[in-house]
Amino acid sequence: MKAVEIVKGVYWAGAIDWNIRDYHGYTLPGTTYNAYLIVGDKIALIDSAYPGFDSQIIERVSSIVDPKKIDYLIANHIEKDHSGTLPALTKMLPGVPIYCTENAVKGFSKHYDTAGWNFKVVTSGDTLSLGKGKTLAFLEAPLLHWPDSMFTYLAEEKILFPNDAFGQHIATSQRFDDEIGKEESLKQAQKFYGNLIIPLAPRVLKKLDEVGKLGLEIKIVAPSHGIIWRSYAGDIIGSYVNWSRGVSKNKATIVYDTMHGSTDAMAKAFAEGLMEEGIEVKVCLLKDGKAEGTHRSNIVPEVLDSKAILVGSPTLQNQMYPTVADFMSYLKGLEPGKLGRKKIGFAFGSHGGHGGTIKLITDDLKAAGIEVVNDGIEVYYKPDRKEIERCTELGRELGRKIKSM
Ligand code: FEO
To answer: Is the pTM here over 0.85, yes or no?
Structure first.
C-alpha cells in the first residue's frame, strides 16, 4: 500500500473503507479515513483511522518513512474513525507526543486506556515547527463537530486539515477533487453537510470568519473523509458559506410514503402545480430506504438547497407512517429551517378513519424550523378529481410563494 504525495513532503497516508454502508444513520458507498504524513526534519502524522484499519495506515506511512521514526502525532478529533489507530501507534512509539485539545484529552480517556500517552495540549495559535519549511499551526474548533475538534494548518504550503469539515463519505481510488470532478465532489460534500453540519451552521460561519481575520490563505483543504480539495478549495469553502447562510434554489422537495397510492397521487399533483410555475421539484418516496434516493440521508441534501418542503403520510394507528416518523425525527434534529434564510412547507396525507397525521407532521415541521404556510391538506381514503385539482392548485400557489422569496 502506498501513500500519495499532495505536495513535496506532505502525503495522504489514510485508509479506504470500501465496505461501510451505514454510519450512524447515514447511508454511504464506503468512505475514507484520511491521515496525513508531514515530513520535515521531524515527522508528524495527522489523524488516523477507524479501529481495524491500523495496517493500512502503517503500511502507507512505511512507503515513505519508517513509522517508528514518527516524532509527533496530531489528533484533530477523538471520534473513533479518526483515532482508532492511536492504540497501535502509541504502542509502537512509546512516549510519542500527541498534540490535541484539552477536551480531546478528556475524551480519549473515555475511549481508550491512555495510561502512558504523552498528551501535549494545544490552544489556538500554538505552533509546532517540523523544520524544512513545515510549520503546523493549531486552531481549536469546539463543537465543529465535537467539543474536542480542532483544525491544523500547514503554514508554508497553505494546507488546512479541518478533520470532518469539508469532508465527503465516498470511497474512490482517486484522492483529489479534480480527479472525480467538481460537480461530483460538491454533490458528495452537500450530502455530508446536509446530514452532519446543518445544525453547526452558525459555528461554521464564525470559524470561517476567524480564519479570514487571521489572514490564513488556504490553497488546499485536506479533510478527514473523501477527496482532497486542491483545485476547488475556494468552491467548497464558498459552498459551506452559502449552505450555512441558507442560500437555496427555487426548488421544492416532496417527501412522503404511501399505503395504497392516495398520498402518492397527492404528492404528484403538488409536483405538477409546482412545475407549472417553473419550480425545480424533487419527489422522494421514502419506502424502505433501500432504493436510490429513498433513504433519509439522501433526501436531506435535497431539502438543504430547497426553499420549500412538503411532507406527506397516510394515517396509521393515529400516527405517521413509520418511514415518515423516522424522517421527521431526523429532520427535527437537523433543523434545516433554522439556517440563515427561511424555508416554507406544509403537510399532506390520506386517512381511512379520523386522520390527524397532518397535525403531527405540521408540529414536526415547525420543530425543524420550517415556516408552515397552511394547515395541511388531508383527504378521506382516495383523492377524487376535485381534491387532486386542489393539490395541483396548492402546488401552483406554493410555486408563486417560492418565487417571491
Ligand atoms: Fe466526527 Fe469523521 O468523525
So the answer is: yes
- Predicted local distance difference test score (pLDDT) of residue 294: 83
Q: Whose CA is nearest to atom 1 of ligand 1?
A: 79
- Asked if pLDDT for residue 349 goes beyond 90, the answer is yes
Q: Which residues contact 14 (CB under 8 A, 6 or more apart)?
A: 32, 33, 34, 35, 36, 49, 56, 57, 60
Q: Answer yes or no: is the C-beta of 224 below 6 A from any ligand 1 atom.
A: yes
Which residue shows C-alpha cell 469532508?
167
| Phi, psi angles (nearest 5°) of residue 60 | -65, -40
Contact 1, 15 (CB under 8 A): no
Closest residue (by CA) to atom 2 of ligand 1? 164
CA of 373 to the centre of ligand 1 (A): 36
CB 81 less than 6 A from any atom of ligand 1: yes
Distance CA 4, CA 119 (A): 28
Q: Are 183 and 322 in contact (CB under 8 A)?
A: no
- Give the 3-state secondary structure of residue 42: coil
169 lines ligand 1 (CB under 6 A): no
Centre of ligand 1 from the C-alpha of residue 343, in Å? 28
Structure confidence at residue 354 as a pLDDT band (50, 70, 90): confident
Domains of the chain with CATH codes: 4-244 (3.60.15.10), 249-404 (3.40.50.360)
